[in-house]
Amino acid sequence: MRFSPQRGPLARALAKDAPLRRLDWIMVLAALALSLGSSLLVWSATRGRDSLTHGDPQYFLYRHLTNLTIGLVLFGAVVAIGHHRIRAAVPILYLASILLLLATLSPLGSTVNGAHSWIQFGGGFSVQPAEFAKLGIVLGMAMILASRVDSGERELPDDKSVLQALVLAAVPMGIVLLYPDLGSVMVMVVTILGILLAAGVPNRWLFGLLVGGGLGATAVWKLGVLSKYQIDRFAAFANPKLDPAGVGYNTAQARIAIGSGGLTGKGLFHGSQTIGQFVPEQQTDFVFTVAGEELGFIGGLVLILLIGVILWRGCRIARQATDVFSTVVAGGVITWFAFQSFENIGMTLGIMPVAGVPLPFVSYGGSSMFAGWIAIGLLQAVRTQRPIAG
User: Fold this and answer.
1) Measured distance CA(313)–CA(336) in Å, rounded
2) What is the Cα–Cα distance from 244 to 255, expressed in whole angstroms?
3) Cβ-contact 386, 213 below 8 angstroms
4) Are 176 and 188 in contact (CB under 8 A)?
5) Is residue 335 within 8 Å of residue 39, measured between CB atoms?
6) Residue 227 has what DSSP assignment?
7) Which among 188, 240, 352, 366 could disulfide-bond with 67, CB atoms 3.0 to 4.6 Å apart, if both were Cys?
8) Which residue in 231, 243, 101 sits closest to 174, CA to CA?
9) Is the peptide bond before 244 cis (omega within 30 degrees of 0)?
């Protein structure tokens, strides 16, 4: 009789085919470096703001690290659940994201910075459902676009599948537009384009979506769906000198803060613009200004390079995926991260309109941190469904 040696827990975890060994650790460590490094930026931006911290300089630091811890737990849960079970649960996950969005329109919802896009649970805990709706769009569209291709019925998604996927994406977008949260809608539109590209749909759909998006944006503008402050933001973007003390104040102060940092910055916790609290929302939408002022061009470049590493590894996972569903999920996630990062950093530099979207893994906020780490978990679930070299 032959006996097989039993491997202990550590040996199993380190085995070549173990899930931990098959994670893309370069991506995970880049996201972790962003999340941990940003805790210092958030701390610097808030430690002197007694009206926000309730007299505790470490208030936002501890909460940011708590959000990161929860995000890592969610990441681990997604990886443990695995690619196939996540795909089976997509209808439930999509429906849950829609219900969360609708809850925002109920008495549970609250208005922050002009957008009725938050749910307050008390004790200082709140959720922004639009962040999770991005996940719902990615997963829902991937399920529909891949259904007939992965089953072997077709080589590419047919017109019916594309139309169904667009209708599915239009539902959460329409709800978010009612808030109105134009920044999240912009991210969703670009993410949808990335999803269609990853799925290999005919070019006529991409062209039609671009034309439809232009007509839709015109209709939204003409019908008065946008709030006055949102219209003023676009006007200030088109003409930065329009109202530098009013609607253009945020961008003007952000550019001053970043420009004053020079090559190496003024040093962490020593930024005069940050200490003077000249830049509003500096721990959330304008957190990049802290990096620019206190860590300089080099610090800002390192932050951007870490985001670039995540995008590079995400593209690699999409390219190596074994089915259309996985390819589309990876393509949707990296498009979402890429455009949202570009929009956030761009608005601090004055090359994009102020749209109120967080910088992934960097801005303070539980919803953004949770959604970002869940998305990283989805990418890892795609990667670990089969052994991948490198």
Assistant:
1) 14
2) 12
3) no
4) yes
5) no
6) -
7) 366
8) 101
9) no
Q: Which pTM value belongs to this model?
A: 0.89
Helix (H, G, I), strand (E, B) or coil at 117: strand
Q: What is the mean pLDDT of each run of 10 residues along the chain (390 residues)?
A: 51 57 91 96 89 84 95 95 92 94 82 70 77 95 88 78 93 88 90 93 84 74 64 64 65 88 91 86 90 94 97 95 92 96 92 88 93 96 68
3-class DSSP assignment, residue 51: helix
Instruction: Quote the crossing angle between the two packed helices 159-177 and 90-104, to the nearest 10°.
Output: 30
Q: How is residue 35 written in tokens?
A: 């999340």
Reduced to 3 states (helix: H, G, I; strand: E, B; else coil), residue 124 is: coil
For residue 240, say if its preceding peptide bond is cis, omega within 30 degrees of 0.
no
Return the structure tokens found at 261.
């940092």
**Per-residue pLDDT at 131:** 93
Q: Report the relative pairing of strands 125-127 and 109-112 from DSSP bridges.
A: unpaired
Query: Which letter does DSSP use for residue 8 in this model?
Result: P
**Mutual angle of helices 366-383 and 296-320, in 10-degree steps:** 40
| The 109-112 sheet, strands edge to edge | 109-112, 115-122, 125-127
Q: Which amino acid is at 259?
A: G
C-alpha separations of 208 from 160, 161, 192, 199 in Å: 15, 15, 13, 16
Measured from the Cβ of residue 73, the count of other Cβ atoms closer than 10 Å reads 12
Compute CA distances 329 → 70, 197, 353, 361, whole Å.
Answer: 22, 12, 28, 19
Q: What residues contact residue 103 under an 8 Å CB cut-off, 6+ apart? A: 109, 119, 129
The Cβ-side half-sphere exposure at 217, using a 13 Å CA radius, reads 14
